[in-house]
Structure formats: structure tokens, C-alpha cells
Amino acid sequence: MNLFDLSGKTAVIIGGNSTLGGSMALALAGHGAKVAIVGRNQEKCEEVRASIEEIGGTAKSFEADATKRADLERILSEVIAWSGSADILMNCPGKNSATPFFDISEEEWDSIMEVNLKSVVLACQVFGKYMVERGEGGSIINISSVSSGPPLSRVFTYSASKAAVNNITQNLAREFAPSRVRVNAIIPGFFPAEQNRKILSPERIESIMRHTPMNRFGEAAELQGAAVYLASEKASSFVTGTVLRVDGGFGAMTI
Q1: Are 227 and 28 in contact (CB under 8 A)?
Q2: Which of 10, 53, 125, 155 is 20 to 30 Å from 105 at the Cα level?
Q3: Which of 25-29, 92-96, 116-120 bottoms out in mean pLDDT, i.e. has the lowest?
Q4: Mapped to the 3 state alphabet, what secondary structure does 21-67 carry?
Q5: Is 115 exposed, middle or buried (0-12, 13-18, 19+ CB in 10 A)?
Q6: Which family does the record assign (predicted)?
Q7: Are 34 and 11 in contact (CB under 8 A)?
Q8: Among 158, 191, 217, 250, which one carries the catalytic annotation?
């Protein structure tokens, strides 16, 4: 029984050129999926593609702006032309800011909401519609955050956007379930990814460690198991609308 065999599946990783997205892309490829790495930075996309090919996997990089529907529709067509299907969608784009609440400009608010929320909505519309109409099921995995609830201090817009991602995940799980398209989210704890390093002062790190029972940051590879589990129809066929924490116990802490 190989519950985690993704052979014959194609995974589209939007934001697959990021630290966490790239690690999860590697895991899906390592379990047999063809992986489409989608991002604006093609140099980083190519780095992920090369790492996948080094382990004998199959991958291709695609350039797109995840906040533009036309780009996502083009990517869907290009992926199908390349591999014949799009069975797994992972939404990894992320943008953060530590701007104090009264100083948040409309431009900053809109920019973060576009990257963190609008991109997820658009991708679920474009790829979700394809999966529903195809009638062969599918898996959509959204990347949320521990800041989605309760919210973290000093990341107001980011927290609001990720709370909305959780809500959309559960709404779409209900909407798509009759078509066997599962929609779930992963809540990573604190992983020192690029967007988080900018706001990790020594004082903030100390506060995070006090609230994380495992008393350490996560490693990108520690998200791989959750990604493969949710991607696999064999392993998680009755799992939809769930928000899976990979956070070192952060969500279990109070005082």
C-alpha cells in the first residue's frame, strides 16, 4: 500500500519559487508528480526545477503574475499542453509587512491583499473550475499562517488576508466536494522564510520561542509531509475543509 504515490498526477505550485513552496514542490516531485513551478522570478523557478531534476523528478518552470487572471488562465493551458492535466494546485504566494496600523497606506493594504488573498481566489476560480468540470477530482492546498487566528501583533494586513484564506478554503471545500475536489489549507508555524526574516527582531524571536513548545523555528522540509498527505487522494480522500497545523505546537499555547 503506497498511500503517498502521486505518479500520473500533475501539481501546479504557484509561488513554487519561494523557500517553502520550493521545498514542497520537491516533495511532490519526489513522490512521482510532475511539477509546474509558477512564479515571477524565473531564476528562482529554474533553481527549483534543477533541484527536482537532480532527484530524478519531472518539472517545468512557468512565468506568471498570480494576481492576474489572464496569466493564470494561460498557465492552465500551458500546463495541460505540457503534461495533459492539472490535478493538484498549491497556492504559496506571500507578502508581509510590519507597518504600524495607523501608518498602513491604501497602496500597501491593496498590495498585500492582492498577493495573499486575490491570487488564491483567482487560482481557485481558474484551476478549480477546470477540476470541477473535468469530473476526475483534484486537490487544492492553500498556504495559510499562524497569524490567521488569533492574529499576530504588527502584521495587521497579513493576518487579515490569511484569516480570509482559511474562510475561503472552508467555503470552497463545501462548494467543490460533490465534484471530489478537495480544498484544504496548511498553517505553517514560524519558518525563517524570506518574507519573515525582515520582521524578526531579537525581541520578536524571543517572544515566538516562548510561545512555541518545541522552542525552535521550523525547517522548510518539515512542511513536505503535510503537502504530500493533502495532495494524495489515497491518503486524504475524506479530508476537505481542514486547516492542518505544522507549527511546533504554537497553536496549542495560551499563557
Answers
A1: yes
A2: 125
A3: 92-96
A4: HHHHHHHHHHCCCEEEEEECCHHHHHHHHHHHHHCCCEEEEEECCCC
A5: buried
A6: Belongs to the short-chain dehydrogenases/reductases (SDR) family.
A7: yes
A8: 158
DSSP states along 223-237: GHHHHHHHH-TTTST
What pTM was estimated for this model as a whole?
0.95
Helix (H) or strand (E) holding 11: strand 10-14
130 is catalytic: no
- Contact call for residues 181 and 140 (beta carbons, < 8 A): yes
Whether residue 15 contacts residue 193, with contact meaning beta carbons closer than 8 Å, is answered with no
CA atoms within 13 A on the CB side of 9: 28
Domain boundaries, the chain: 10-244
DSSP H or E segment with residue 139: strand 138-143
Dig out the grid coordinates for 127 from the structure. 484551476
CATH 3.40.50.720 fits 10-244, yes or no: yes
Convert the pLDDT of each residue in 98-145 to its tens digit.
899 999 999 999 999 999 999 999 999 999 999 999 999 999 999 999
